Amino acid sequence: MKKQYVLFSIIAMMLLVLAACGGNNNEESQNNTDGSNTTGDDQGEINLYTGRHYETDQALYDQFTDETGIKVNVIKGKDDELIARLEREGKASKADLLITADAGRLYRAKTQELLQPVESDTLTNNIPEKYRDPENEWFGLTKRARIIAYHKERVNPDDIQSYEDLTKDAFQDKVLIRSSSNIYNQSLLASLIALNGEPDAKTWAEGVVDNMARDPKGGDRDQAIAVAAGEGDVAVMNTYYLGKMLNAEDEEQVKAAEQLGVIFPNQDSTGTHVNISGIGLTTSSPNKDNAILFMEFLTKEQAQEQFAKANYEYPVNPNVAVADLLESWGSFKEQDLNLSKLGEFNNEAIMIMNEIGWK
Ligand SMILES: [Fe+2]
Fold first, then answer.
1. Does residue 287 sit in helix, strand or coil?
2. pTM for the full model?
3. How far is the CA of 102 from the centre of ligand 1 (A)?
4. Ligand 1 centroid to residue 305 C-alpha, Å
5. Ligand 1 centroid, distance to 112 Cα (angstroms)
6. Residues 6+ apart with CB under 8 A from 119
7. How far is the CA of 238 from the centre of ligand 1 (A)?
8. 48 - beta bridge partners?
9. Ligand 1 mean position to 277 CA, how many Å?
10. Ligand 1 geometric centre to CA of 311 (Å)
11. Parallel, antiparallel, or unpaired: how do β-strands 97-101 and 45-50 relate?
């Protein structure tokens, strides 16, 4: 009898503890009528610095506000400028979150101590390991591939199946690729350093420069337009730019994109280079609990679909289907690389580019 009583007491105490924990959890997502949050110093809002400029994102932020009562203050800017601003503002920054394109940039924000780690099962469950920082200081939200677009009439796709093929004699003066000052090519080269070693990567970069159709100018879309105009035959570009061109209001962009075929390079070897746009919690974040809720929200299935679709990107959450256009390009093998490597080898990539004269 006595034993049973003791057991009953233990169970009762455990239930009490559980109830107390549950109460706390409820409080976290509840906002008081004056707009303040019941935990910590959180106000009923978050401040988001973002390099994204899509109208459809606002609908998603509104939905987050409807669900949680937390207001999302959006500050838009250019990716590098937002990082510079965070650095300038330091500890006084009101920013809670940074959304920016390219793992190389997120890595840089991390090394500048602008971000802090977030331990969240939701984030680690929804985002595959390779798309997030090993120390949880940034998390991928959407994914893009760096593909080769070729002119369907002038190029036999069998001749251009890898990044290495860009350096073949057959493509002398035919390669269109943007300048080395842009992080997308720095990250591409960084991935090749990580996978093949520095000497190989340098030889590759030299071969690309040798085959350039012109001195690099413009963005990824300009390379595609130059191929359509006959300045060269193949262009290196991110998948979403092709998506944007095919859906552009400007007829010329649509016509140019329609002349191009898509190659996912290196399917028989190291895989296609992918990169992410992602999010990090700032070191100074005044509304940390709310900010983490927002991060988690963006990785859930419904948000992922909308967020990726807005920019013709692939969702990082593997449970979410890709949009029809991307589906039509087919599935592909990716480089087997944690994307933090793109940041780790960024300096080396820039040094190679400077040495070999990639303008
Ligand atoms: Fe871009």
1. coil
2. 0.86
3. 9
4. 19
5. 22
6. 136
7. 7
8. 74, 97
9. 9
10. 9
11. parallel
Distance between Cα 237 and ligand 1 center (Å): 9
Q: Are strands 45-50 and 71-76 parallel, antiparallel or unpaired?
A: parallel
**What pLDDT score was predicted for residue 137?**
98
For residue 250, the CA-to-ligand 1 centroid distance in Å is 18
Residue in 140, 98, 127 with CA at minimum distance from that of residue 275: 140
Ligand 1: distance of its center to the CA of 54 in Å?
A: 13
User: Are the C-beta atoms of residues 158 and 246 closer than 8 Å to each other?
Assistant: no
Q: Taking a C-beta distance cutoff of 8 angstroms, is the pair 123, 291 a contact?
A: no
Tokens of 176: 């269109």
DSSP letter at 212? B
Mean pLDDT of residues grouped by 10 in the chain (359 residues)? 53 47 34 39 86 90 96 97 97 97 96 98 98 98 98 98 98 98 97 98 98 98 98 98 96 97 98 98 98 98 94 97 95 98 98 98
- pLDDT, position 18: 44
Residues 175/166, Cβ–Cβ less than 8 Å: yes
Q: Give CA–CA dist 32/169, Å, rounded.
A: 68
For residue 334, which of 277, 269, 287, 278 has the smallest C-alpha distance?
Answer: 269
Name the 3-class secondary structure at 45: strand
**Domain covering 10-143+277-321: architecture:** 3-Layer(aba) Sandwich (3.40)
Residues in the chain, how many? 359
Q: 286 vs 42, 96, 296, CA distance in Å?
A: 6, 6, 18
Measured torsion, CA atoms of residues 40, 43, 49, 52, in degrees rounded to the nearest 10: 120
Q: Is 108:343 a contact under the CB 8 Å cutoff?
A: yes
CA of 3 to the centre of ligand 1 (A): 68
Which residue intervals of the chain bear CATH 3.40.190.10? 10-143+277-321, 144-273+331-356
Torsion of CA 175, 273, 103, 210, to 10 degrees: -30
**How big is the CA angle at 220 (ends 217 and 224), to the nearest 5 degrees?**
95
Q: What homologous superfamily is domain 144-273+331-356 in, according to CATH?
A: Periplasmic binding protein-like II (3.40.190.10)
